Amino acid sequence: MAEKSGLSLRTIQRIENGESIPRGDSLKRLAIALNTSPDDIIDWKIQEDRGYLTVMCLSALAFLFFPILGIIVPLVFWVLKKDKVKNVDRVGKSILNFEITWVIFFFSLIILLFTGVIGKLVLFINPEARFSLGLVYAAVLIIYGYNLIVIIVNTVRVANGKPTKYIPAIRIFR
């Protein structure tokens, strides 16, 4: 094996005895010598990392800068570690499903407001009612506030090792 891989006999002995784990170039050379992939040589273990989960939950706060960022930033965190850190796949899907649902609802409301559909609906229900811009701002603040509260509550739950509850959420990622 030492000759085939180009590694020293002592390095091979340490790896065989479990004294060291092959990394980088050594791992690549062993994989080539054994005609296999590096993933087949090393038993990658799924780690538990509540800190990463907490940061991933907090990453959804990016919606405060622009609503779509509340999807993109957690998506990056999820893709990077979904198979490497325990519960990242489950929590990441929950965050993404909730944020996608929230963005759909938010932009639907904005479209209905700017097209005047909500104003016409208010006048249809009560012809004497007055539609004000203050109501629009209040609705946007309530929707943003709800998203903020859900993110913070679930971040605390993750930090304490409890399951998350992102509601409502259309199950896009299963």
Order of helices and strands: HHHHHHHHH
Low-pLDDT ranges? none
Tell me the major beta sheet: none
The gross shape turns out to be elongated
What does this structure look like?
This protein is mainly α and 174 residues long. It folds into 2 domains: 2-41, no CATH class; 50-159, no CATH class. Helix content is 66%, strand content 0%. The protein has 9 helices and no strands. The protein has helices at residues 2-5, 9-16, 24-34, 38-41, 50-59, 69-81, 88-115, 117-125, 133-159. α5 (50-59) packs parallel to α7 (88-115). The longest helix is centred in the middle third of the chain and has 28 residues, at 88-115. The chain is elongated and about 90 Å long. The chain starts with a helix and ends in a 15-residue tail after the last helix. The mean pLDDT is 88.
SSE map:
Blueprint: H1 2-5, H2 9-16, H3 24-34, H4 38-41, H5 50-59, H6 69-81, H7 88-115, H8 117-125, H9 133-159
